[in-house]
């Protein structure tokens, strides 16, 4: 952990940072907070996991298994986030005192209405 703090101290003394300096600083800071158990503390507080970065360019020679691991982690987080959004929308729509307006842009049905407050259709 001391080498990571040394990296942070070295970058603090620089006046002009290069893009690589910024990347090195982020890596050092993430290593420091990781050593302090940040993932456990965030999970216990109800936050999602921090997804690791991966290289987007020049990755044709990259490890396919590693990319699949990143893909699955991001896909899982996206599904969890989507289900959370759906649950919150459903709860908001159930508790809404609806103000119905006719949806004139929807020409597929005889009559369709939407709630001006929560967006629910009927």
Can you give a write-up of this model?
- The protein is mainly alpha-helical.
- It has a domain of 50 residues.
- It is 55% helix and 5% strand.
- The protein contains four helices and two strands, in the order ααααββ.
- A two-stranded antiparallel ribbon has the order 1-2.
- Helix 1 packs antiparallel against helix 2.
- The longest helix is centred in the middle third of the chain and has 32 residues.
- It is elongated, with a radius of gyration of 24 Å.
- The N and C termini lie far apart (58 Å).
Structural class designation:
mainly alpha
Number of helices: 4
**How do the strands of the widest beta sheet line up side by side?**
1-2
Quaternary state of this entry equals: single chain
Which blocks of ≥5 consecutive residues have pLDDT under 50? none
Backbone shape: elongated
């Amino acid at each position: 952990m001391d080498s990571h703090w040394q990296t942070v101290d070295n970058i603090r003394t620089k006046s002009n940072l290069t893009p690589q300096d910024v990347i090195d600083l982020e890596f050092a800071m993430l290593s420091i907070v990781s050593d302090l158990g940040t993932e456990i503390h965030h999970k216990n507080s109800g936050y999602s996991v921090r997804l690791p970065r991966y290289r987007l360019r020049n990755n044709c020679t990259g490890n396919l298994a590693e990319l699949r691991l990143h893909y699955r982690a991001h896909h899982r987080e996206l599904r969890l986030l989507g289900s959370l959004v759906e649950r919150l929308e459903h709860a908001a729509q159930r508790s809404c005192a609806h103000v119905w307006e006719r949806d004139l842009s929807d020409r597929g049905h005889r009559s369709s209405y939407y709630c001006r407050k929560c967006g629910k259709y009927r």
